[in-house]
Amino acid sequence: MLRAALTVLGQRTRASHDCYFCLWDGWGTGIEGGDRFRIAPAFPASVLNGPKVVIPNRAYFLFRGSLSEFGDWGAADMWPGQPRSDMPPAFIWPADHAWCVANDVDPHYAGIGAAATAIDDLLSQPGLDVVPADPRAEQPHYW
After folding, report:
1. Contact 84, 78 (CB under 8 A)
2. Predicted structure pTM score
3. Which of 12, 34, 50, 134 is the most buried (most CB within 10 A)?
């Protein structure tokens, strides 16, 4: 769904070639263990020690690239033959700030801030599960 939403949003920016992606730093860490179980770090030291965006209770690796590069983080396999298949970014926005997607690692939904015309485009897409949000109403949360 996120990839489909980004396809729609990509038509609503002049900067689809220049986007920012914040990837939760928990996706990038490895797990040490005995000889039988070890998950390798996802990224080299240049990424692990590179630019980060930090907010309360979370830190994110900051990637920059084309919207078409969404999902191509260059992550290493967890272990030989086992690719990392799903590391969705928590925040995505184009350099012109036409819209922003907020998709934390825990909730089952994403929030999208955009012009009303972009939201209308998303609402009209078959197959996308999109509902308009009312900031005055209680927001979705986990049960």
Report:
1. yes
2. 0.83
3. 12
